[in-house]
Design brief:
With about 325 residues, the protein is an alpha+beta fold. It has helices spanning about 20-25, 35-45, 110-120, 145-155, 230-235, 250-260, 265-270, 300-305; strands at about 5-10, 15-20, 45, 55, 60-70, 80-85, 90-95, 125, 135-140, 160-165, 175-180, 190-195, 200-210, 215-220, 275-285, 290-295. It contains 8 helices and 16 strands.
Length: about 325
């Protein structure tokens, strides 16, 4: 089942720029001693032909890229299993691995690593968590299970509880509206919340408490939009500690995006990961019909936040 390489096919849907610049930004690989032009000649085709690094990509170009397992660091999968039976698997997701293949991660994505470890081509995550979000991650072991649980997600029948640590004290209990692209942002994938008579994204603040110089929140996202909790909290002036993308000063994220050096921005964001944790998940088991609640009580979350309590820096 294990494979040594994977070929990616995708369309370029951005403004014109050089192929070399785009690939280095998208994959930010150490080239393992390869010259960039050699790397491109051996790995990349554009519109089914060889090109050089200075080639100017145009909107709609078809890119083919050959990715090797050796491009990624070798990792040993040592995950905490929170629940497992013949239908489902729930693990405690760490904050340093993506759920699905993305950018420089393919073999080191949890979707692929779990398939290989369990030797099951059908096992797949039924929901997603952001790269730096830890906590309960649920997999379906077959198509029937995935369909049943994903239907519950779509119909908002699944109860989710998250913890977050934020810079400021939030007002109110409900955050809602429509999440749309922030066209005024220098971060192309950043979202903003706008008012709506029929809000498509809703997050409820269940509880809050002062926590050192910060505030610890328990939240329930009623809907499940991309970046929902992060964008919602930022929209009310309560960005999550460690969240580079939604930090009020966008130069912080842009610095990290360029240099990939957390130490350059740590004095501002305070934590080397976003302080967001998926604490629990409740759903109806697709085989038994019973209500099942899975809780991540591992020490990983608490340990990752321990350094914040000693901080005496002012709030954002």
């Amino acid at each position: 089942m294990s494979q040594a390489s994977k070929t990616f096919y995708y369309r370029y849907l951005f403004e014109s720029r050089s192929l070399g610049e785009y690939l280095l930004e998208r994959y930010f690989f150490r080239l393992n001693g390869l010259d960039l032009e050699v790397w491109i000649s051996e790995r990349v085709r554009v519109n089914d032909r060889r090109v050089i690094g200075s080639y100017l990509l145009q909107y709609g170009d078809k890119i083919e890229y050959l990715h090797f397992r050796k491009d990624e660091d070798k990792l040993e999968l040592d995950l905490k299993i929170l629940f497992e039976d013949e239908a489902c698997l729930a693990i405690s997701k760490p904050s340093d691995l993506p759920v699905t293949p993305s950018g420089a991660y393919y073999f080191n994505s949890l979707a692929i690593m779990v398939k290989e470890k369990w030797q099951n081509d059908e096992i797949s995550p039924v929901h997603r968590l952001d790269l730096e979000t830890s906590g309960v991650l649920l997999f379906g072991k077959n198509r029937f299970t995935r369909k049943k649980i994903q239907t519950q997600f779509q119909e908002h029948e699944i109860e989710k509880c998250y913890q977050a640590v934020v810079f400021n004290d939030p007002d109110g209990e409900l955050i809602q509206g429509d999440l749309v692209s922030d066209d005024h942002s220098l971060i192309h994938s950043k979202l903003k919340l706008i008012d709506s008579a029929y809000p498509s994204s809703v997050t409820r603040i269940l509880k809050k408490q002062p926590w050192g110089n910060y505030y610890r929140l328990w939240l329930s996202p009623i809907t499940g939009k991309t970046n929902q909790i992060r964008a919602h909290l930022a929209s009310i002036g309560c960005p999550i500690v460690g969240d580079k993308k939604y930090y009020p000063d966008e130069s912080i994220f842009l610095d990290w995006y360029r240099f990939r050096d957390i130490n350059r921005i740590l004095p501002k964001v305070k934590l080397n990961r976003q302080a967001l944790h998926h604490e629990s998940l409740s759903f109806i088991h697709p085989y038994t019909g019973d209500q099942l609640r899975i809780v991540d009580e591992t020490l990983y979350w608490e340990e990752s936040l321990a350094t914040l309590l000693s901080s005496s820096e002012p709030k954002v």
